[in-house]
Amino acid sequence: MPVPPSNIVSLDQHARLDTVVAQVGTAILGKEHAIRLALACLLARGHLLIEDLPGMGKTILAHAFAQTLGLHYQRIQFTSDLLPADILGAAIYERQQGTFVFHPGPIFAQVVLADEINRATPKTQSALLEAMEEHQVTVEGETRDLPSPFFVIATQNPIDQVGTFPLPESQLDRFLMRIELGYPDVAAERVLLQGRDRRELLAQFPVCLPPAELMAIQSVVSTIHAAPALLDYLQGLLAFSRQSGLFRNGLSPRAGLALLRAARAWVLLDRREHVLPEDIQTVLPAVVGHRLHPADAYLEQSSSALLEKLLRSVGVPA
Fold first, then answer.
1. Pick from 138, 201, 231, 315: CA 20 to 30 A from residue 224's CA?
2. Residues 23 and 51 placed together within one structural domain of the fold
3. What does pLDDT average to over the chain?
């Protein structure tokens, strides 16, 4: 099927995106909003951090997206003894050839699952920084491009669990979104208990959106219209986060760009052509929740309560 021009998403492609959400939803039951956020993150060319307790379906979600989109998938289990070379690869001397030959690591995949990323040391965590920001890695002085599309999904256990290392701010900032899956509702859990094993189900998933079409849709996201009044609203949110005293540090310009990219991707999934304040409000918790930390005077308030105060304090344009 020919791919339409880069500034157009066809009705067929919109239908395929809906099918992606529905198919992944058969593996992760009752979590459509989280699935749509994850897909918006991918369409915006971002990376996703999933923070939750073990056993909530974080790994299944990553594998389901890779299978549904026909993308090359690699899983890296992060542990305290994992080294950067275990992620990036290394040059190994080949006696028969008489030279060093680079053996790529699992980072050279289109969907990379960094499982339990906060169980690795900060040195190993930092091996992902260049890859996530520049879509390339530099090993022993040579830079190598990563495949396209390139999507990192990292899972993180709650920081109060034994054997975890907090992700530094520079690493957290590389993730466009952070989401939680949480417990399923009663009906979804009953279907899960009575149904087939999710991993067996994944093996039979057909490809719903080929990689070439996915990349074409990604290129449309930046063309979604954002009116000057919408940008005024976005800048008002950024300014309040910096001046209100609620947070240790306000949102950076990169965070503002992330909010806009995520909102545009959400609009595309909703089959609309311009960003509304409601779109900013929808994606804001996932985009800024891991970037904002309460000031000392507000440590007893939850992150969600502070984000609600942020949204209430900035007027919505007419």
1. 315
2. yes
3. 90
Q: What is the pTM of this model?
A: 0.91
| Eight-state DSSP code of residue 273 | S
The whole-angstrom separation of Cα 116 and Cα 203 is 23
Strand partners, 102: 91
Burial of 128 (C-beta count, 10 Å sphere; 0-12/13-18/19+) = buried
Interval 123-142: pLDDT, tens: 888 888 899 999 999 888 88
- 163 & 262 share domain: no
CATH code at position 181? 3.40.50.300
Dump pLDDT digits (tens) for 53-108: 888 888 899 999 999 999 999 999 999 899 999 999 988 888 888 888 889 999 99
The answer to the question of residue 247 being in a domain is yes
Region 298-309: what's the mean pLDDT? 90
Question: Does residue 129 sit in the same domain as residue 156?
Answer: yes
Is 318 inside a domain boundary?
no
User: At residue 232, what is the residue type?
Assistant: D
Q: State the total domains in the chain.
A: 2
pLDDT in tens, 180-233: 988 888 998 898 888 777 788 888 899 999 999 999 999 999 999 999 999 999
Shared-domain flag, residues 130 and 260: no
Domain residue limits at 66: 11-217
DSSP H helices, the chain, are 11-27, 32-43, 58-69, 84-88, 122-125, 129-134, 169-172, 186-194, 198-202, 211-221, 228-243, 253-269, 277-288, 303-313
C-alpha 154/C-alpha 77 separation (Å) is 10
DSSP string, 207-223: PSS-HHHHHHHHHHHTT
Q: Kindly state whether residues 148 and 263 are assigned to the same domain.
A: no
Sheet containing 151-156: which strands, arranged edge to edge? 73-77, 111-115, 151-156, 48-51, 177-179
CA–CA dist 182, 37 (Å, integer):
14
Which residue reads 């169980």 in tokens? 119
